[in-house]
Amino acid sequence: MNLKVKIAGVELKNPVMTASGTFGSGQEYVELTDLNRLGAVVTKGVASKPWPGNPTPRIAETYGGMLNAIGLQNPGIDVFVKRDIPFLKQFDTKIIVNVCGHTTEEYLEVVERLAAEDVDLLEINISCPNVKEGGIAFGQDPKAVEAITRAVKDVAGQPVIMKLSPNVTDITEMARAAEAGGADALSMINTLTGMKIDVHRRAFALANKTGGLSGPAIKPVAVRMVWQCAQAVSIPIIGMGGIRTWEDAAEFLLAGATAVSVGTANFFRPNAAAEIAEGLAGYLEEVGAESIYDIIGTVR
Q: Where residue 134 falls among pLDDT bands split at 50, 70, 90?
């Protein structure tokens, strides 16, 4: 079975990758799963300088998922270039670097640093708060989406994937704005904003009060949004949100995604992404398809 897919001209051996923030850069998982079996590893968010993240507690379990308010804690671009890229280059998998920032300038600093590095794709996390515009996320304003996409594309040395926030009224408006700005691909969805209250302590479960909801609970929303955007834009989409099994992944592919990312499942089944890739190969055989492209976007 041919599981190969192309994202902006970059060929992946299969359409399954890890979702940013759930896999580090793979170091924590290397003894638990074979990174060579993955289509790509998507790194944790990388900023221009180290970010300490939010105060604890910053993770809470919920029915069908989890809330996190990690706050994109990361050691910054200098450590990432020195430590993480050499580690990932040991494996036969593509490297997608997730980039975060509080201002356009912070994003561009990281993207410019990565231009000469041996990484395959950039994923731009536009769910970050735009501190120069009163804290609203870049991804919640179509004009801001188009502007930051265009700015990143102007300096990027690799193809650019824009990661869309679901916390908007019309996700297709954001998808079209990213495409208009020159995005090579989209990834979606990021987490949904949620809250949990501990009734016994009569207090918020997270120090940040709100957090990002991920896991199986959000999958129907994610599949719907991927399907909508697949009808609205012509660039590839990487679908994510609650994928645990190959059947979940197949839903996203049938809805129009070219590839998928596995996130929360990594925490309770570290081998999930590799197993999902194997399951998709079996699915293609079951339905008599020779290539993964034979099923992508076939449910309209």
A: confident
